[in-house]
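Subgroup meeting minutes
Present: P.N., E.W., G.H.
Scribe: E.W.

1. P.N. recapped why we're keeping a running log of single-chain structure predictions: easier to compare across weeks, and new members can see raw inputs and outputs side by side.
2. G.H. added today's entry (123 aa).
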Amino acid sequence: QLQLVESGGGLVQPGGSLRLSCAASGAPYQNYAIGWFRQAPGKEREGVSCISSSGGYTNYTDSVKGRFTISRDNANNMVYLEMNSLKPEDTAIYYCAANRPICVSDWRRYEYWGQGTQVTVSS
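Output recorded in log:
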């Protein structure tokens, strides 16, 4: 079993920044690709970014390219999502999730999920 816990969400003004963290414990974390997903009220869950188990591969949804950066620290079982130039449309609950062994686009294939952290972008 892999346990994931997100943190770092909050209220920020448009144009501001936040860094989300995903802390892993339990099963060998280094074997898993980690994805960040978000879900806004009344909308479907969408993939935001994903990083491979080694950290050598990353991907981003088009709407966040150039603004968000995903990274991981395998020594400390952490994954981060640095979010800059935030927009109101980034408002959502953000989740990290784990899949073995690679990043996939379908959120239903991710085996382990955190509880989510709320990000609100508003003036």
